[in-house]
Design a protein that fits this description.
The structure holds two protein chains of two kinds. Chain A folds into three domains: 58 residues, no CATH class; 39 residues; 44 residues. The longest helix of chain A is centred in the middle third of the chain and has 36 residues. Chain A is rod-shaped. In chain A, α1 packs across α3. Chain A is built from nine helices and no strands. In chain A, 79% of the residues lie in helices and 0% in strands. By secondary structure, chain A is mostly helical. By secondary structure, chain B is mainly alpha-helical. Chain B has one domain. Classes of the chains: A mainly alpha, B mainly alpha. The interface between A and B is large, with 46 and 62 residues.
Chain lengths: 177, 194
């Protein structure tokens, strides 16, 4: 809350009227009891206005400033007030997010494929493990490979034992023992 | 005549002035460049610094034109907001104390064909104001500079400094009263010295 005393209110009103273009004499006559104070304030305001008229920048400064601005062609190409700029960005946010997710998914897939290719090479399994960082995918793939190998071994054994000649072979071996 | 409410006018004038149009040059000089310089000069009280800052303000304003959104704010008020921030940064970053340049007196008389007596009065007035205004509070200096150097309305000043119009009127009134007091005492010191 702004508190003004009565004299201050008179001065504020007087300055307001002067600002609106009322004549000094007219304003001074409105409040004869504050005439001297109002006159002094007016003189101070006039001093400021007088000072203003003598303060001016050199025109060369404006010329130098203009020279530093972009060329006219560039300036013409500058877009006008971009009223929908924010809306455009709002549209781009989910699209950008989706694109980022896709890229991440692609990177993850590529990483898994590369690991599988590394494991498939003739290099010893130890070096392959060292060369690639262990990830859950690698463990899953290794487990699947081991399971497949065990299943193959079981099938071979079953086939071997189910043949009659094999049984004779086994008997012979046990006799030798 | 530039429309202070329009950034488009400003941009067009800049383009024309750069292309060598003397009328566009004069319009910018009279309507924007000089008021901004006057305001900055009275705030930093040094001609060289005022010139540098005025140039910075115009470069910044032009660069930020595409992002300028009126929101009911006149473009000239936007320029003054940039100028005000530049002055605040100037004092904050440099932590300088005001270095007056009384020899230059910052004064380049706009109309050299004017009445010599009046010019002397104006020069004296400018120097007196510059010397006494620094005794006022920062808010009072701000309002008087924007009102009398920038020739802005109370509503515009209110938006720039973020105070109510009533507060702006009061700051102006108290600033003028204080200035009057300091002018009187300066005058008295001058008389005593004589």
């Amino acid at each position: 809350m702004i508190k003004n005393d009565k004299a201050e209110q008179v001065l504020i009103k007087a300055l307001e009227l002067l600002n609106q273009g009322k004549s000094r004499e007219e304003i001074l006559n409105l409040s004869p009891e504050n005439r001297q104070e109002v006159e002094e304030i007016f003189r101070t305001a006039e001093l400021l206005m007088l000072a203003k008229n003598s303060i001016a920048p050199p025109k060369k400064l404006l010329a130098d400033t203009l020279a530093k601005l972009p060329t006219a062609a560039t300036a013409r190409e500058m877009p006008s007030l971009p009223k929908f700029r924010l809306a455009r960005w709002l549209v781009l946010v989910p699209v950008g997010g989706l694109a980022l997710l896709l890229v991440l998914a692609l990177v993850a897939t590529q990483g898994g494929t590369r690991t599988l290719q590394t494991l498939d090479t003739a290099a010893p399994p130890e070096s392959a493990e060292i060369a690639t960082a262990p990830t859950p995918d690698i463990f899953n793939l290794s487990a699947l490979d081991a399971e497949a190998a065990l299943a193959g071994f079981d099938a071979d054994l079953y086939e071997f034992l189910s043949e009659e000649s094999s049984l004779q072979e086994v008997d012979a071996m046990l006799t030798n023992l | 005549m530039i429309n202070p409410n329009s950034d488009k006018d400003f941009r067009e004038l800049i383009i024309k002035a750069k292309d060598g149009d003397p009328r566009a040059f004069s319009a910018i000089y009279e309507e924007c460049f000089t008021p901004i310089f006057r305001y900055i000069y009275l705030r930093v009280k040094n001609r060289t610094e005022a010139e540098d800052l005025t140039q910075t303000v115009f470069l910044k304003a032009f660069q930020s034109l595409p992002g300028f959104r009126e929101h009911g704010r006149p473009f000239l008020a936007y320029l003054f907001t940039i100028a005000r921030n530049a002055v605040i940064d100037f004092w904050r970053v440099s932590k300088k104390t005001a270095v007056d340049d009384p020899d230059e007196a910052l004064l380049v008389v706009a109309d050299p064909k004017g009445d010599p007596v009046s010019r002397i009065d104006e020069r004296h007035a400018a120097e007196t104001v510059k010397q006494t205004i620094k005794n006022l509070t920062p808010d009072q200096q701000e309002v008087l500079s924007l009102k009398f150097m920038g020739e802005l309305s109370y509503a515009e000043i209110s938006k720039i400094i973020g105070k109510s119009e009533e507060a702006v009127r009061q700051l102006q009134c108290r600033g003028l009263k204080a200035l009057r007091k300091y002018l009187r005492s300066a005058d008295q010191r001058g008389l005593d010295a004589d």
